[in-house]
Amino acid sequence: MNALDEVLQKYATSQSLMDHIRYTAESLSMEFDKWGEQYVSGPSLYILIVAEVNFADYTDPLGDNEWPVDRCRVVTESRDVFTKVARDVAFSRDGAVIVTGDGTIQRQMVRVRNPYRGEVENVEDLEFPDWMGTKHMSALETSLRDDVLWGVTLSEEDGRVTTFLNGTYQDYPRDEIGGRWRPEA
């Protein structure tokens, strides 16, 4: 299987899950009305969709920051429940949320270690736009790992939602998200 086939296979199996998470991040961005106010931070999310549950090689537990799996264990179980819990997490916890390819959310939130030169291909070739903060740069680099299917971030600074796939990203500034084009799920 060549590299393009691998990307297409990963994309096809995880697109719906990524869309669900992205739309939730967009909803959180749209409902927050204090963007741009001094000393105010909006909701913040960093979610990685991974193919394998074994992600310990590149993450570290982030203290007491946990996703409340007793309230929401699977992303697609209920859109309303996932959005409500994501809202609570986005305002009260820090770190990346790990979701396996079947939609199961892992309890422990993590700090993601940057890949080092030689660990993943092309990491040294990445270019980071000026608007990217630490969370976004981490998601871009981490998206190069073989078992990472997607990354999704919601910026606490400006409500921007970004998706990451194989060292590329699609950026959705807050003024461009939402609207009639968005499909109903």
Strand line-up in the sheet with most strands: 3-1-5-6-7
Note the beta-strand portion.
15-25%
* Number of DSSP E strands: 7
SSE pattern, N- to C-terminal:
HEEHEEHEEE
In the predicted model, the low-confidence regions spanning at least 5 consecutive residues are: none
List keywords for this structure.
single chain; 185 residues; alpha+beta; YojJ-like (1; two-stranded antiparallel ribbon; globular
Structure described in brief:
This protein has one domain: 3-Layer(aba) Sandwich (YojJ-like (1). The chain contains three helices and seven strands. It has helices at 3-31, 79-92, 134-142, and strands at residues 45-50, 59-66, 97-100, 108-112, 148-154, 161-165, 168-172.
Question: What is the secondary structure topology, with strand pairs?
Answer:
Blueprint: H1 3-31, E1 45-50, E2 59-66, H2 79-92, E3 97-100, E4 108-112, H3 134-142, E5 148-154, E6 161-165, E7 168-172
Parallel strand pairs: 1-3
Antiparallel strand pairs: 1-5, 2-4, 5-6, 6-7
Can you offer a commentary on this structure?
With about 180 residues, the chain is of the alpha+beta class. The chain has helices spanning about 5-30, 80-90, 135-140, and strands at about 45-50, 60-65, 95-100, 110, 150-155, 160-165, 170. β6 and β7 (about 170) form a beta hairpin. The mean pLDDT is about 90.
